[in-house]
TrEMBL record:
<keyword id="KW-0378">Hydrolase</keyword>
<keyword id="KW-0325">Glycoprotein</keyword>
<dbReference type="InterPro" id="IPR035669">
    <property type="entry name" value="SGNH_plant_lipase-like"/>
</dbReference>
<keyword id="KW-0732">Signal</keyword>
<dbReference type="Pfam" id="PF00657">
    <property type="entry name" value="Lipase_GDSL"/>
</dbReference>
<dbReference type="InterPro" id="IPR001087">
    <property type="entry name" value="GDSL"/>
</dbReference>
<protein>
    <recommendedName>
        <fullName>Esterase</fullName>
    </recommendedName>
</protein>
<comment type="similarity">
    <text>Belongs to the 'GDSL' lipolytic enzyme family.</text>
</comment>
<feature type="signal peptide">
    <location>
        <begin position="1"/>
        <end position="20"/>
    </location>
</feature>
<dbReference type="GO" id="GO:0016788">
    <property type="term" value="F:hydrolase activity, acting on ester bonds"/>
</dbReference>
<dbReference type="InterPro" id="IPR036514">
    <property type="entry name" value="SGNH_hydro_sf"/>
</dbReference>
Amino acid sequence: MLRAAVLIVFLLSVARIGRSQSYNAIYSFGDSISDTGNLCAGSGGCPSWDSTGMLPYGRTHFGHPTGRCTDGRVIVDFLAERFGLPLLPPSKASGSNFKKGANMAIIGATTMDFEFFRSRGLGGSVWNDGSLGTQIQWFQQLMPSICGSDCKSYFSKSLFVVGEFGGNDYNAALFNPGKGMAEARSYVPQVVDRIASGVEALIGLGAAELVVPGVLPIGCFPVYLTLHPSSNKDDYDETGCLRSFNSLSSYHNELLKRAVSGLRSRHAGARIMYADFYAQVADMVRSPETFGLEYGLRVCCGAGGQGSYNYNNGARCGTAGASACGDPEKYLVWDGVHLTDAAYRAVAGGWLRGTYCSPGILH
């Protein structure tokens, strides 16, 4: 009996490994780190204020803007390529076939809904209605066209990427003159609880393979470094990143890891992978050459060499006064907020191999 039980466990583990290396589709949720064009998918195209709808966005891989907040591809594009799937169409793109994948992510998305921010006096800081709950509703609207009446079976063979979520929730307070860091930290537990609830909802719909990324080390990004400078050297770590902002990210990620652990114990039939966005990007800032890059904190598409980071909030990438470097493949940061095509490729590799994902997608 014992030998038979051991054999069954072994065969199940082999089946799981084989399944994790082949997916029939990828479904993605998130914000501007993941958006493949939802903000620009309407009949009017990208909003006039959205500079990501203009060159040099998209120039590296596509040769034109696609609604992605980078010079080329984002992480889910590289995951799709690895598994032989088409690049994920934005869920709002009319006439698209979503059987092989769909991307619900949209620029500016938050985890919490608008009412949450309004109740905290932050309604004016949130301009997007594409919260995590809303994105799950968008996904549910697509389900009949994807899988008919046998969705649980179909989704059990699909990969779900849930996030990252949280960055814009905290930005609502961090970029609000009347609020700030204390306000952002106060609602981290609620944000993490909502992410966990969203993952649980997707498992209820049939998802069995899910990647849940943490948030990035925001204190290493030029937008925060430029808008929140300090004359106190102790406010920066050894790599030049702002300690307090990275502490916020770390707090979120610690709570999220605990939440993922709880989800694993409650849903033994699902494989829930925690993607350590923070650790990898921090390593890329600390040692860019290890990842084939040269520049960690300097922006490729920015304000014509201004300041230490080539970033000026009044001359953002795609607007007058900004220009792009000729070698984005050497840069970690594209526009002060988002990463380059080259950096996203490296991140996808870290998630696939398991270097920065537990367990790795291919494990």
